[in-house]
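example protein:
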Amino acid sequence: MSSDHAIAIAFFFIFVLMTLCITYWAAARTKSKHDFYAAGGKVTAVQNGLAIAGDFMSAGALLGLTALVYSKGFDGLVYAVGYATGMPVVVFLLATRLRKLGKYTFADVVSTRLSERPIRIFAACASLCIVSLYLITQMVGAGQLIKLLFGIDYIYAEFLVGFLMILYVAYGGMVATTWVQIIKAVMLLTGTLLMSFLVLKAFGFSFGAMLAAAVKNHARGAAILAPQGMVKDPLSALSLGLAVMFGTCGLPHILMRFFTVPDARAARGSVFWAATVMSTFFGLVFIIGFGSIALVASNPIFLDATGKPIGGGNMVALHLANAVGGDVLLGFISAVAFATILAVVSGLTLAGSSAFSHDLYARVFCKGAADPVKEARVSRISAFALGVIAIALGIAFQTLNVAYMISLTFSVACSSTFPVLLLALYWNRLTTAGAVAGGSVGLVSAILLTAAGPAVWVSILGHAAPLISIDPPAIITMPLAFITCWLVSIFGQGEHAAVDRANLGGMSGATAR
């Protein structure tokens, strides 16, 4: 352990112990499948709103967005604005209908009018891909955080995080995940408010003085106050906007949250509270990001021999906490960031294990007649498997910016699950074949084009230039998914296609099969 971070380590153990106590409490109250997947449907709108906000106010958001602003200035704020814009889309298009039709997963909703078996197979595959990509961002942030605090090897840090997340999901289910999210959302918002206050205090509460210091310390000078990279590549800017706006509507762990509330009104209220908390948090990124340039970039204590932040760019927010609040604030923000990571990976792991145990095992393999005890066992096994996968992915992608990786995940989500869900809810000519074909084309093309882009082709595989420069590729893959759904559906013939088209009218009062 690093003796320099004794207070941070103490906070770390306190928060981990707190979350373990929550898991123990939740495990005693998780008595049925409905409790495990949806917290018994007893979560209030305010509680669920905080939990949803907690999913977005992740380590990827705090650490990654601060790092982006630190390195790119104004361009990094595009991500912060983008992540908050998805919530209105969710409330207007999805929230009410999801709560009326769904049970545990988005596949429950779509299968109310389309053939269950092929839809659930596609939904499970898409959900597992999205969850795995999103887990990368959290695992990278967690590994770098533990490495910085404890001075242990990054690989061992990844194993520690993986073990804890498996423990939370396997024993606490949605009840534990929800309450860990609520508590950490409140703590993270409190911590960022305090850090922002102290940053402004250091400059006499003058935002202009802070920006002037940031301009002085950054290599690009005044250029950091205006858009740079986005203007040079407008297609990538538009693609990023599509991904972060509509990707929210396709994230499995977010969609699951609408099944934890008692009714559709509470679902809409959840989005209101989530949007309020998220907008406040992302607004603070403006202060924290430019404050980090002003106070960290000029302080050799936080820089290595090459002038880069110690621990990597993703650790800039923690260095800023140390600069304005000393070891106490560093300890608090570090512990909250870690609690944030654990909460988010728990939600992701629960969504992934649900996709396998509920959509594949219970509904496809067992045709709806699965033993609840066996289904719970399968869910725990899948949570373990996802934990192992998350550790491996966290090690492989440890050098990438975590906020940037989130945008790639959103690109896959808006190209696969979102088109299928939206068309299933609103277009009466959608067929099972069209949904599976369109969703699969969107999923595969998003993954392949992401692999051919800068994130993988250059940063991971080491090639000199990417095969495709549009990054993320949502501007190509999302329309491709919609067009494929449309073409296959309108040319679909036969009895199954006719049944699919006839089922939309009865969806308003349907329940998942």
